[in-house]
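Subject: Interface between my chains keeps coming out wrong

I've been trying for a while to get a sensible model of this assembly. When I model each chain on its own everything looks fine, but I need the whole thing in one frame so I can look at the contacts. Pasting all components below, labels as-is. Any help appreciated, I'm running out of ideas.
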Amino acid sequence: MEVAVRKIGECIERGKVNRTSPYPRDMLGQDGSDELTRQALDSGITAEAILQACNEGMKRIGDKFGRNEVFVPELLMAAKAMNAVMSHLKPYFQTGVVKTKGKFVIGTVAGDLHDIGKNLVAMVVEGNGWEVVDLGVDVKTVKFLEAVNENPDCRVGLSALLTTTMLNMSKTVMGIKSRFPTTPVIVGGAPLTQKVADEMGADGYAPTPQGAVAFLDRGAGR
Amino acid sequence: MRSLLGLLKEGRVLVSDGAWGTMLQERGLQSGECPELWNVTRRDDVLAVAKSYVEAGADIILTNSFGGSPIRLAHYGLEDRAAELNEAAADISREAAGRNHVVLGSMGPTGEISLVGSVTKDELYAGFALQARGLKKGGVDGILVETMSAIDEAVSAVRAAIDSTGLEVACTFTFDRTKNGQYRTMMGVSPAEMAEAMKAAAACVIGANCGNGFDQMIEVVREIRKIDSSTPLLVHANAGLPEYREGKLVYLETPDMVAERAKILADLGANIIGGCCGTTPEHIRAIVRELKVS
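Reply #2:
Try treating it as a single job with all components included. I did that and got this:
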């Protein structure tokens, strides 16, 4: 039983989605997270145990990404493997058998259409047990405010790739903070630094997806 | 039509242009607006940017078509106008450049990743081919595929441009310094892997653009020249990473700082030197001056 669960975690870390996936090459023809999760559930392993193994696998790959030992492709494939697990676990979340850690509202700020970084963070955060509300790209402040209003206990993540949209990010941080002072806001994106994040008044800055998870798991601001 | 390789054979280090995006923003381009649409709606402003680089002494100027692939333009619902907007971009730069300067049509990444299936290889190729044909129709001398991070997308763009236009095609990638001091694109590609793959795809000029400023570009050039001493090398570096000061973004590398580093880049074997985000005609003027003296 332990072996089966550990294998799922390994599939997450290596980005092995299913039997037919050609990635990674050295796992060609083996079962992926998709098949293994089905088998595990059928053999009576709890959704909670599977999720725990996945969270650990996701943390391992996220940490490697943070150390620049792997890059975007590896992380994307890990997230894909995680999605396969989640599709099997969905019923357990819906019936409340397993619970998420909380809600994370994320979006790329107004004027910015880049979604790769935002998607990576969303996928890794979700893979670590949070429910993600993805508002997409070019998200105006008012849309973030609506989302916080609908999800009062959420944390918010703002993404920007363009240097120029950092100014919009700053306005959105101020907008959220003035109406919802206790809602934690974390920012990230290529042009950002801790210093810039501090100047904006954000509660946190994450240079990597795993950094965002660490911020959320700390329960910062709450 | 001028040949980029022909001009390089003269032996001198060539100067390319500086940033377009940040220059257009100064003229009122809003974030979230499609820069390529300005080629028809604000033609005079785009032409003014192109001219400012010709007047600064650049040998080569680019076009306002970085996001001109139909896949990218679809974000604005403008995918059906890709051919028109690219042709207009080329036409503007051609007008500014006259016959004595080289015009390279800019083609940037689509923002989609084929590895996870958000776009197919055929869609990438077809989109880049359409863009390249529009640029050729508008009068470019060659194509610059730039800011690439994934080998498959870059190969797709380079091959599509060559196959559909027969023009000279250059390709540059964007590298960041990793925590262990190596240079990699966000997709994990090293300068050596970039060089090998781009030469295999028949790009006639390779190199790097954007990134974290001129100092890091020096290290990237050093790394490429270690494994390849002969392929012409093009670099477009940022004027550093911007800082946020009193509600405004400021790029900290001054024209003088950049010019000094351009000299080092030339000594290390860069053949074409220009700027990316945050550089201005003043930066290009300073580079021209510096390289002329030496």
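Reply #3:
Confirming on my end. Chain B touches chain A at residues 21-22, 25, 30-33, 75, 111, 113, 115-116, 149-150, 178-180, 182, 184-188, 241-244, 247-249, 277-278 (CB under 8 Å).
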